[in-house]
């Protein structure tokens, strides 16, 4: 859609750990730069298990430590309309990227890719799922998402100029 608004959807499995973190971090960057009227941010999961639930308390706590508020977010599942409403569909890992590609309309003209494509300096290509880990994974999610947020903002600014 070419109406001056760029729409970004972050996608993980449950929409309670990684993509809500990306949602809150990127939203804050957008607000800090005065771009809230130009960039819309949302997140979802490819699975339905946690629909309607708030983010995982471990994600909420780790994000709060760094100044991000995940508390208003509620999980929802990827739906068909998302392909018509979002310009960027950014998966946290390869399996969710596969789902995004498999479900996409043949003529989807937006960008489907991995979030960490916007953090080429990071050693990882996927944001590791922290759900069953020892807790340290939640901080790593934040670090990776912060790095990719800068690259994604630069990409959107570049696209808006060209
Ligand atoms: P997320 O993490 O995809 O980053 O939200 C997960 C949340 C829940 C589950 C797996 C991953 N789960 O198996 O319930």
Structural commentary:
The chain has 162 residues and is an alpha/beta fold. The protein has a single domain, classed as Response regulator (Rossmann fold), CATH 3.40.50. It is built from five helices and four strands, in the order E-H-E-H-H-E-H-E-H. The protein has a four-stranded parallel sheet with strand order 2-1-3-4. The protein is globular and about 45 Å long. The two termini are 15 Å apart. The mean pLDDT is 96. The structure holds 4-nitrophenyl phosphate. 4-nitrophenyl phosphate binds at residues 12-18, 45, 49, 129, 131.
Sequence of secondary-structure elements: EHEHHEHEH
Q: What count of helical segments does DSSP give?
A: 5
Question: What's the number of structural domains?
Answer: 1
CATH superfamily: Response regulator
Widest sheet, order of strands: 2-1-3-4
How would you describe this structure in keywords?
binds 4-nitrophenyl phosphate; 162 residues; four-stranded parallel beta sheet; Rossmann fold; alpha/beta; 14% strand
In short:
The chain has 5 helices and 4 strands; from the N terminus they run E-H-E-H-H-E-H-E-H. It is an alpha/beta fold.
Structural topology:
Elements lengths: L5 E7 L5 H15 L6 E7 L11 H9 L16 H4 L2 E4 L2 H10 L7 E4 L21 H26 L1
Parallel strand pairs: 1-2, 1-3, 3-4
Helix pairs in contact: 1-5
The structure holds 4-nitrophenyl phosphate.
4-nitrophenyl phosphate binds next to loops.
